[in-house]
UniProtKB/TrEMBL annotation:
Organism in which the protein naturally occurs: Thrips palmi
Signal peptide stretch: 1-23
Protein name: Uncharacterized protein LOC117649277
Taxonomic superkingdom: Eukaryota
Keyword field: Signal
InterPro entries, per the entry: DM9_repeat (IPR006616)
Amino acid sequence: MALPEMWRSLSIVLVVVAQQTWGRSNWIAMTPSRLLDSGAVQAGVFTDNLPTFVARVWHDNNILPGIARPNVGAWASWQDYEVKKENFEVLIADEVTWIPAANGVIPLGAQPTGVYLNGTDLYTCRVLDETAFILESGLIMKGQTVCSIPWQNRTALYPVYEVMLYK
Ligand SMILES: *[C@@H]1O[C@H](CO)[C@@H](O)[C@H](O)[C@H]1NC(C)=O
Ligand SMILES: *[C@@H]1O[C@H](CO)[C@@H](O)[C@H](O)[C@H]1NC(C)=O
């Protein structure tokens, strides 16, 4: 490898390390009782008028983007039902943007917030459910045309949604 090329590879490695170590956003371990004042990124509001938060849960070696509710737990869509966890992670970020999208589009700049065991990246999406009047967050993957939301042990599918971008 020529010297300039080596130097470039090294800088790339350093940039990646810097982003991971000193990046302004962070996923932190969370439990339901500590959630409300944790500073986690809010996803919406639930039927109890309490905020819901962007979360990710571990299930069968998958990392699934989902939603957390104070004092209750976190949920994610898994196949056509939902999984609930008492231990999960929430996102702490300086800047969050929700970009409207539809029919499977994942806006440029969206970072994966989860991954299936087979390596397929997952992104955080949210929808306004007009029947329940709630803003819920769930997951979407490339090649899927809908945002999947965990709801009463089913996965509800929405073709119109927003995708989360964060810094
Ligand atoms: C990866 O796994 C997910 C969930 O089981 C599935 O929907 C998707 O089609 C798989 N992708 C590939 C490339 O196998
Ligand atoms: C949710 O549905 C799955 C699949 O049908 C089932 O195995 C599980 O027990 C259900 N969970 C609850 C809390 O009802």
